[in-house]
Structure formats: structure tokens, C-alpha cells
Amino acid sequence: MKREDLLALLSDMSLEEKIMQLVQVPGQTYEESAAVTGLADMEKAEKSKYLAGSVLGLHGADKIIAIQKDYMQKHPHHIPLLFMLDVIHGHDTVFPCPLAQGATFDPEISRKAAEVQAKEASADGVQVTFSPMADLVRDARWGRVVESTGEDPYLNGLMAAAMVKGYQGDSIADKDHVAACVKHFAAYGAAEAGRDYNNCELSEHTLRDQYLHGYRRPISEGARLVMTSFNPLNGIPSSGNKWLMRDILRKEMGFNGVLISDWGAIGEMVDWGFAEDLKDAAKLAMDAGVDIDMCADSYSDYLDSLIKEGNVKEELLDEAVLRVLELKNDLGLFEDPYHGASAERYKEVSFSPESRELALDAVRKSLVLLENRNNALPLNSKSIALIGPYVDEKNTQSSWAITCDADKNVTLRTAFEEAFKETDTKIKYSAGCTLLDNDSDLGFTTYHSDTFDEDNDRLLAEALEIANSADTVVLCLGESAFQSGESTSKTRITLPEVQLRLFNEICAKGKKLITLIFTGRPLELNEIADKSDAVLICWRPGTESGHGICDVVTGKVSPQGKLPMSFPWYVGQEPLYYNRFNTGRPKPVEGDTIFTTRYLDCPNEARYPFGYGLTYSDFEISEVVLDKEKLTKSNPDDKITATVKVSNVGDKCATQTVQLYIRDMVGSTVRPIKELKGFKKITLKPGESAEISFAITDDMLKFWTAANIYDSEPGKFSVFVGFDSATENSQEFELLD
Ligand code: NOJ
């Protein structure tokens, strides 16, 4: 439809029709006959059903086609309904969770995975996905870190932008693509004490300098929607934060797409004590420029009177409605209201061998090897005991893979059976214990077993028996899918007690011990890391879990993942992130540490820092060589080239991720001790070397200055190039005016 036709349509719509374009209803509206108690309720239910502009949570081509047909017939202007869903790391084929994708340091993988998700979801009737989540996360207690790509603003921005590219393609009208929604604007990841839905206090400087970066890139990439966050930011809930939404998001970041609230977030402004009632909340959200109310009933119930009383201008409503209509139009819904949804096409495109191959590649690249004493990995053993609750566990995805059938995920047992079928290696399998402690709170339910103790005693005895006859134990442990994700904050980030008991009993056998950890967040792993010969972080890997992990463990490919979040020694260090400040009393590496910044009982640094991850080979890196020592700010083409020589001095072919960090030595505001500014992957055979160069430009030196502008400041800088964020391999240069 042409723009003038859209405008004509808008001017022909009744006030009620316009308001309802801004209302998003839950899927049940179309799936269940609403329980109505009287005529008024019946009218309301019908109004929601046939006038609401969008719905969330539905999928299934035939179902969506039927709903759309019925809806459009009844809608006064036959405007199509918009179907939205959380397609986070898979629709049918499940890719590793976003945190694992961060560990790949490979935005191209995320782009391709998003492309597959879009194709599958779109054929299944979905037109908008609530992804990517670009929130910066620094606190492992917060369960939603599983949905982020980690603690670094630069990496987050790259990954989220790649996802947007994959979801949206060149045109969202294309039936293989969907519109993307960047969330949760803003700073949802800064929830105090890692407790979900909690308050966020950030200076404007920290907000701009650290937290907004992740959203900026995917928005510039053209993401069509943005979602507000639940949290207040410095006292103002996001869904009513005019400054954040109008000045920062729209004016500064140039976002002109649809702004949708998170579920019920407009209504929650009443609970926060920011809005008097739902009507007041509706007004605040409209003023802030929130276009769609997700399931709070605030716009549907109160916009009409707010407009009639003159408290919300109709122009404001028209602006918002036009944005929603434009999105529908750009998706091509006025021409094809099903956006190519078809049960046949869904069958054809979903869970394809190519998608599974990509998922496999993503799993292999996301696994992070934390320890590998005496080259315990790759496996080199003729008798293996594969033990642990994850041996047969199919749910290796996250709790957000809502449409994906965990039964299709390849287990470790299946993959190991396939891999060792025609070999003389003997493998035995045992669960060893339950996945959860008894009476574990999983949010929506509590795990309870009346026979918990007997079952675990029996499982342990079986496991110890097979461990006895093996020379290597591969222990498969981890959190359950429901211990990370929304509303899963924890104050103890350890494995369940029952798994630790199994671990210690197995350790006592003195066998070579390889520990695999499935997790959606950084964990405290001290005992496991100290006592295992090798530790591999597997995250929530999805469909190709078993195959991808087996390929790495058996040495078919070398691990190459790098931590996207710091793993602490103890939870008491959280929030923990590498790009911290030096403080006025940095702790010296050697000598007296009294009255310096430190803990009495724990190092300041992470146990495993951001960017860390071993391979099966050994790499060396030369000193950093700069082609010159001064960069001129006034010359936009000026650059310094930083070069290192990287050599594979081990005996396996492996891929290393070479990381570039910069420190601004003196700034008008205090600057982090290091910030990631670039990275390159290099695959080298044993004995091979390569030169890796990075161009350093003025742009990379910019930050939010004391003058509240994004700029660089002349002075000294350090440039670090290494294999993780703890590298001290550095040189200095100077930025001149
Ligand atoms: C609430 C979550 O915070 C958000 O991430 C999600 O997209 C919506 N619910 C819709 O399911």
C-alpha cells in the first residue's frame, strides 16, 4: 500500500479502531472462548478479539491463517492482525542460547541462525520476533543473562545487529523474514542485586557509556521494533520515561519504528507507585511514546476517555497508529495477510539438514574449555564412563525455546553411541543422580520426589560401579533449563547439592575426570575446576547438543569458545566485569595490599575472565608493534596499525580469537582499565604463524565525556592484544588534537 493510501485509511478509521491498533492481546483471546459473565463482558471480549491490532504467543500456519481470515472479515477496515512471538534461539531447530552465541565471538553465526529462525517462524505464521535482547549483563545472579550475549557493550552490539540482519534480511516483506524487536530498553540488565524486575540506578554517564551501546547498533541496523523494559531507571519506569523514549531512543538514536511495552509493564507503573491508576499509566505511556500496550488493558480501557477529555492529543494517537500500520504495510500484510505462512512450507523449511548443520557448527564454536590439565582432552581412552543427569537429558535448550520440542535434541548418549559404534572403546552410561535437588523452586513449579533419597542412592551406586571399570569418567552436570531465564534470580550460583555429591564421590575414584557443565549463567566452579582434569562449559546448546559436544570432546574439532561473561570465584564478587575502573587504590600484583581495593577472602579478578577459553593447542603471541605512536584526531583518515604475530606452537590445528583492548589513560571522566574494540579469529596448523593487524581509529577512542558528548580526548592510550581480557601485552600511543 502506498503511504497516501495508509494515511487515507488512518483518517477513515474510528477512534475505537485506532486505539485498538495499539492494543496487543494474548494468544488465548483467539484460542479459548472467553469466559463471559454478562453483555458488557461479551462486548469487551469481542472488541479485543476483532479490533486488537496485534497478538502474541501464537504460531501454527493453519491456525494463524484461520484466525486472520475470520478477523479480517469482521474488522471494519479489514486491517490484518499482527502476530508476534518470542523466537529467541530457535523456532524448531534450536541454536545455542544467546549467551553461548556470545561465546562464539562470531556474529556471522548469529546472523545465519537468526535467518533460519525467521524462515521457520515465518512459515509457521509468526511475523515479529521479540529478539534480540541487547541488554548488557554484569551480574550472574540475574537469570536472564542466558538471553544476552554477555558483559561487553561492543560484543553485544555486534551480535544483536547481526541477529537483526538475519531476522529481517533485505526486506521484511519477504516471506522468509520477520521483523525484529530490540529489548529491553533500557538497562534491564542492571537490576539491583541481580533480582529480576528490580530497580536500576545508573548515572546518565554509565547508561550512555556502557548500557546504551548494545541497543544502538541493532537499532541502526534497522530493527523495526523496540521493547520497553520493566525497570525504572533512576526512578522513572521505562514505559513512562519520556526522556528515555523520546529524547534518547527516538531523537538521538533515530529510532522511528514501533515501540512496544513489555508484558503488562504499563500497568506495573501503578505498582511502582509512579502512576495513580491504570488510566494515569496509559497517559504516561502515551506521553512517553509507547505505541503498543502489551497486555495491560491500559490503552483499550482508558485511551478513549483520555482523548475525549483532552488529556491525550489525538495527533499523538494518530502518530502511534501510523507506525503500527506502516509496520504491517512493510511486512506486506495488506497484500498477503499470512506473510507466506503455510503448513506445507513449514514442513519443508523447518528442521532441515542445513539448519541442523549450522546449529552443529554453532555448538562446536560456543563451547568454552576452562581447564585441560595434562591434555586430558581430547579423549584418549579405551574405557569411558559417561555419567551424570545430562547423559540422557533432552532439555538442553533454554526456557525461552518455547516452540521447540526438546525431544528432538540429540542427547550425549546418542552422540557418543554413534561416535564410538565401530571402535573398540567401551562406554557405559549412568545418570548418577537427579538433575535437581529435592524441592527445587523452578518458578512455575517445584520439583519434588517422594523417593528422592532412595533414587539418588541407587543412581549413585550404579554410577560408582561403572566408574570403577572405566579409566576416564566424563561427568555431565549442570543447571536445569528452568534455573536460568526470566524470573530465575539466584543468590547461590552453584550446581545442585545432589550433583556435587555425585562429583565428589566420583572424584574419590581417582579416574581421569572430564566435567561438562550445562548452564545459562556463569557459575562458581571452584571445587569442580580444581579437581577435574578438564572442564568444558556447554551452555544451553539446543538441537545439536550431543553431536557438537561429542565432536569437541573426541577431538574432531578443537574448542574455540571464549567467555562472554566473567566467571567469579564467589558469588559475592557480583556484579563482576572486566571493564571496571582502576580505583584510587589499585591492588598491587606484589607487595603490601593493606588499604588497597581488595577482598580479604577472594581475588578481585574473575576466576575465568571475559574472553577466556582454551584450545587443544598452545598459542604464542608476540609483542604488539605499532606502525606509529601518534594519531591525529583532526585527520579523519588517520589510523595506527597494531600488529602481533600469533603462532600455533602446540600439536593440533586450532582456532584462536585474538582480542584488541584499549585503555584511555586519562579522561574527563574515569575510564575503564580495558575495553574490547576488536577481535579476529585465526585458524592455524601446528607450527604455523600469522600476522594479525588491527586498525586503531579515532572512532574507537570515543566515550561519553564529562561534557556529555560522545567524543575522544587527546592524550595517552594503551593498546592490548591478547587471547583474553586479562592480557597485559600492550603498547602506548598518543592521540593528538
Ligand atoms: C516478558 C519478557 O520480559 C519479554 O522479554 C518477552 O518478550 C515478553 N514477556 C513477551 O513474551
Describe the overall structure.
This protein has 737 residues and is α/β, with parallel strands linked by helices. It folds into three domains: 21-30 and 40-346, TIM Barrel (Alpha-Beta Barrel); 352-573, Rossmann fold (3-Layer(aba) Sandwich), CATH 3.40.50.1700; 619-736, Sandwich (Immunoglobulin-like). It contains 22 helices and 29 strands. Strands 9-6-5-4-3-2-1-10 form an eight-stranded parallel sheet. The longest helix has 17 residues, at 107-123. The chain is globular. It binds 1-deoxynojirimycin (NOJ). The site of 1-deoxynojirimycin has 7 residues, from loops.
Question: SSE layout and pairings?
Answer:
Layout: H1 3-12, H2 15-21, E1 23-26, H3 28-31, H4 39-51, E2 54-56, H5 61-74, E3 82-85, H6 98-104, H7 107-123, E4 128-129, H8 153-168, E5 179-185, H9 204-211, H10 213-220, E6 225-228, E7 232-233, E8 236-237, H11 242-252, E9 258-260, H12 265-271, H13 278-288, E10 293-294, H14 298-308, H15 314-330, H16 343-349, H17 353-366, E11 368-372, E12 383-387, H18 412-420, E13 426-430, E14 440-441, E15 446-447, H19 452-468, E16 472-478, H20 497-507, E17 512-518, H21 526-531, E18 534-537, H22 545-553, E19 619-621, E20 625-626, E21 630-632, E22 640-648, E23 654-664, E24 675-684, E25 689-696, E26 703-704, E27 710-711, E28 715-722, E29 730-736
Parallel strand pairs: 1-2, 1-10, 2-3, 3-4, 4-5, 5-6, 6-9, 12-13, 12-16, 16-17, 17-18, 21-29
Antiparallel strand pairs: 7-8, 11-18, 14-15, 19-22, 20-22, 22-25, 23-24, 23-28, 26-27, 28-29
Helix pairs in contact: 1-15, 2-14, 6-17, 7-8, 7-16, 7-17, 8-10, 11-13, 12-13, 13-14, 17-22, 18-22, 19-20
The structure holds 1-deoxynojirimycin.
